[in-house]
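Researcher: I'd like a candidate sequence for this fold, 262 residues long. If you have to choose between options at a position, lean toward the conservative one.
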């Protein structure tokens, strides 16, 4: 399940400042911060030690999460669908309606902390069938990552981040007998894991990122930025806020200039 939008919004600035600070520091990347997720210090394709993702600690919910529906608006003469908010229960239905009403739609711009698995998986399959581009603005976490990974082309704005954590159906937060039924169904819930994992692998997520997603508890969030995604082999393009293509050097310069004064 998703974390709160408040936590995600706060971690965007915190993690980027932390990352750039480590990059600029002597010996940055050689050791992990005390609160970073432990992982193997294998070399990246550029020959430098990999920087570890920053894990923001959350608090496990004892109540069943309820999510508002995302806001979807169409712009650029029907070519772009802007989505802001959670993957709620009607997310796939709303996305389908937007796609049917806008046959020339080419790209989805999304900011989301994630949400429910079933509508998220349905929406990801729609995106895949339509060969849509998905561009992340600000943050895309939990189930939102499936939407990004399933896209024909993935884009990321320079200060946007991806958030990974393990899936949680919140069975224990449900009243009996729903709680017992949920645990029973979870024994056979292979659809989520198989589809999600397949999309991540096709998008280039390596063993480190897949392991990070699996071992990060559902109440926490492992935050990864553009430079770290590139380090770990993810296939995507960086674009500025106005859509101008950016190189890795452009992104690193942008982040350094923006956060070095913090």
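Model: Candidate sequence:
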């Amino acid at each position: 399940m998703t974390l709160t939008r408040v936590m995600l919004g706060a971690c965007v600035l915190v993690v980027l400042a932390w990352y750039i600070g480590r990059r600029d520091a002597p010996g940055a990347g050689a050791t992990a911060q005390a609160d970073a997720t432990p992982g193997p210090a294998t070399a990246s394709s550029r020959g430098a030690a990999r920087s570890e993702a920053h894990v923001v600690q959350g608090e496990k919910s004892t109540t069943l999460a309820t999510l508002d529906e995302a806001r979807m608006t169409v712009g650029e003469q029907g070519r772009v669908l802007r989505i802001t908010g959670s993957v709620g229960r009607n997310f796939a239905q709303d996305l389908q309606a937007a796609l049917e009403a806008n046959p020339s739609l080419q790209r989805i711009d999304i900011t989301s902390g994630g949400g429910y698995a079933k509508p998220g998986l349905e929406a990801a399959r729609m995106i895949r069938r339509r060969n849509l581009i998905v561009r992340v603005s600000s943050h895309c976490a939990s189930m939102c990552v499936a939407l990004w990974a399933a896209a024909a082309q993935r884009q990321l704005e320079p200060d946007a981040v991806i958030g990974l954590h393990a899936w949680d159906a919140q069975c224990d937060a449900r009243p009996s007998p729903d709680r017992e039924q949920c645990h029973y169904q979870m024994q056979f819930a292979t659809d989520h894991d198989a589809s999600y994992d397949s999309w991540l692998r096709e998008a280039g997520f390596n063993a480190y990122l897949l392991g990070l997603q699996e071992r990060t508890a559902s109440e926490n969030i492992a935050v990864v930025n553009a430079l770290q995604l590139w380090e770990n082999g993810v296939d995507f393009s960086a674009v500025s806020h106005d859509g101008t293509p950016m190189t890795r050097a452009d992104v690193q310069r942008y982040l350094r200039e923006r956060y070095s004064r913090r």
